[in-house]
Amino acid sequence: MRPDPLYARYPFFRAAREAVQRADISPPRLVTQGDPAVERARERVERALMSGTVESETPERWSDRDELLSYPIARILVSLVDMRAAVEKYAEAEADTAHERLQADLNASDDDLQSVSRPRADLDTVLAEFDLADAVTREGDDAHHPWFRVDVAAYLRLVDTDWGDEWRLVNRELAAGEVPVRGEELHRLLREAVRRRVVDGLPFDVRGSAAGDELAAALDDDVTTLRERLADRDRLPSVDVVAPEQFPPCMQAALDGDDLSAHAAFAATAFLVSLGLDADTIAQRWPVLDDDSLDYRVAVLEDKDGSQYPAPSCTTMQTFDACVNPDERCETIDHPLRYYAAAVAEADD
Ligand code: SF4
After folding, report:
1. Comparing 195 with 257, which gets the higher pLDDT?
2. Where is [4Fe-4S] cluster annotated to bind (predicted)?
3. Ligand 1 mean position to 254 CA, how many Å?
4. Which of 236, 239, 246, 250 to mutate to test the pocket of ligand 1 (most atoms within 8 A of CB)?
5. Are residues 127 and 87 in the same domain?
6. For position 348, what pLDDT does the model report?
7. Number of domains in the chain
């Protein structure tokens, strides 16, 4: 099987699913044969639950086929884990990763498009994928700050009431049944369309047939590990004092800096949300985090329904070169929140 590389980046596209169906690939066989797609599926789910992304830590290891096939296997794994928080976090992570890829694809300049062989999604394809082709019209021709008009019914179908006042219709200049949105707002709506596509039908019943039972048995160890990881995450210390002088070195470096990578901004925001801080407080005290995405990051990270993302562990921080100036205490912990809890306790003593 040599899939369209676009399907490897967007495996939830209908055409990607059909390509898998056409190839007549049996997930039980992939699992029992130890196919690399199964290992990538394990990573996909683990990264989704622990780090809020399904991007691989070692992308060079995986072919387009592995990427594409890992998606249906990841859905089987999430269904077997069968915890609401797992389903929600998995769908959020798929949607976030797709959102990042989509932004990169849609913002690529003509030069990028010519110089990079990897196929990129274009807006028309993505709108058609989610039956929005007739609901979205481009306004003007400013390539850097595009505006769109979105049919009000489609807008209301996708907007979540938790997104904040600026998304309420009363705060939009509704005209002729259409809502004006900026380019990045349209991407946010598309992210939501992806999330809903991913969550649709999850969890499903894997068992109930001989093949399903065999599959569940073959993945049993993976499911147990994922459940344990989720439980571990829930056992992270809860510290509700805010003492920046006790923050771990990585967080101090990030919050004292003036230009954060997307991963460092996510990690620092997740750390502060774990301490119970809201977006306004974060923006006021740490202006370096006060960018266009802060409200959105906090909304995703906040614990509204038990599906809170944990702040990234030290291992994840190291992977993204965000573990900065580790000190002696760092040698005794595996998570920035554990560092902070220990530092606060020691200062109290
Ligand atoms: S070891 Fe952990 S807590 Fe210490 S600086 Fe690195 S990421 Fe931060």
Report:
1. 195
2. 250, 314, 323, 330
3. 11
4. 250
5. no
6. 85
7. 3
